TrEMBL record:
Name of the protein described by the UniProt record: Succinate dehydrogenase cytochrome b subunit
TM ranges: 59-78, 106-125, 158-176, 197-217
Keywords recorded for this protein, A-Z: Membrane, Transmembrane, Transmembrane helix
SUPFAM superfamilies, per the entry: Fumarate reductase respiratory complex transmembrane subunits
C-alpha cells in the first residue's frame, strides 16, 4: 500500500509538472497567435523564425511533443488507477459530495482537447511538414498569415475550435490550480497562486476563442 501510494504521488507530481510545462507552451502559443490579429507582418516574422530556427525545431519541438504525449499517457494511467482505487475502497465514493464536476471529468475534458489536437495537427502541422519536406517551394517568409486565415473560413471548423477551447477552459480550471497542490505547494502564496491559475484558465481559452472568431468574421 505504501509503495502504491508513493508511486501514485510520484505519478501525480509528474502529471503536474508536464501540465505546467504545457501551460507555459499555451502562453507563448497564445501570444504568437495574438499577433495575427494585431499585425500580419509580425505574425509572419515570428512564424518564420519559429519554423526555421534550429533550436526551436530540433530541440524545443521534440520536447513539446514528448510533453504532450507524456501528459496524455499519464492522465490515462492515473484515471485507471483512481477507478481501481475507488472500486476497492471500503468507504463508498461520494461523487459530487467531495469533488467538483471538473475534477471528476478531467479525463473527458482532456480527451476533447486531445481530439482537438488531432484536428489542429491535421490543419497546421501536416501541411507544414508537407510544405517543408515533401513539396518543393521557393522560400516565402510571408505565407504563414494567409495559411492561418484560410483555416477559419469554415463555420464548422471555427465552431469545433471554439467548443474545444471551452473544454480547454474546463480542463485548465481544475488542472492548473491542482498542479501546485500535487507538487506539494502549500504556503502563504497558495491562495494568490490559485487566483492566478483561475484567471489564466479563463483568459487564455477566451483569448483563443477571440482569435478564431476574429479571423472567421474577418473572412466574411
Ligand atoms: C485560435 C487558436 C489557435 C491557432 C490560430 C493556432 C495556430 C497554430 C499554428 C499556425 C500552428 C503551426 C505552427 C507550425 O507551423 O509548426 C500551431 C501548432 C500547434 N498548436 Fe496551435 N493554434 C491555436 C490553438 C491551440 C491550442 C488551444 C493548443 C493546445 C491545446 C494548440 C496546440 C498546438 C500545438 C501542440 C502545435 C504544434 C506546435 C509546433 O509547431 O511544434 N494550439 N498552432
Amino acid at each position: 500500500m505504501g509503495g502504491l501510494l508513493k508511486s501514485s504521488v510520484a505519478k501525480k507530481f509528474a502529471m503536474a509538472l508536464s501540465g505546467l510545462f504545457l501551460v507555459l507552451f499555451l502562453a507563448q502559443h497564445f501570444t504568437i497567435n495574438l499577433t495575427s490579429v494585431i499585425s500580419p507582418d509580425t505574425f509572419n516574422e515570428i512564424s518564420h523564425f519559429m519554423g526555421t530556427n534550429f533550436v526551436v525545431q530540433a530541440i524545443l519541438q521534440p520536447i513539446l511533443i514528448f510533453g504532450v504525449v507524456f501528459h496524455f499517457i499519464m492522465g490515462f494511467v492515473l484515471e485507471i488507477q483512481n477507478r481501481n482505487a475507488r472500486a476497492k475502497s471500503y468507504v463508498s465514493y461520494n461523487g459530487s459530495a467531495n469533488s467538483s464536476w471538473m475534477s471528476r471529468n478531467m479525463i473527458y475534458s482532456g480527451a476533447v482537447v486531445l481530439a482537438f489536437l488531432g484536428l489542429h495537427f491535421y490543419d497546421f502541422w501536416v501541411p507544414e511538414l508537407a510544405h517543408k519536406y515533401i513539396e518543393s517551394h521557393p522560400e516565402d517568409a510571408t505565407r504563414y498569415y494567409g495559411e492561418l486565415v484560410s483555416k477559419f473560413v469554415s463555420p464548422v471548423r471555427t465552431g469545433l475550435y471554439v467548443v474545444s477551447f471551452v473544454f480547454l477552459m474546463l480542463h485548465l480550471l481544475h488542472g492548473f490550480s491542482s498542479s501546485f497542490q500535487s507538487m506539494g505547494v502549500n504556503n502563504k502564496y497558495s491562495e494568490g497562486i490559485r487566483k492566478f491559475t483561475v484567471g489564466y484558465a479563463i483568459i487564455i481559452p477566451l483569448g483563443f476563442i477571440f482569435i478564431a472568431a476574429f479571423h472567421y468574421f474577418n473572412n466574411l
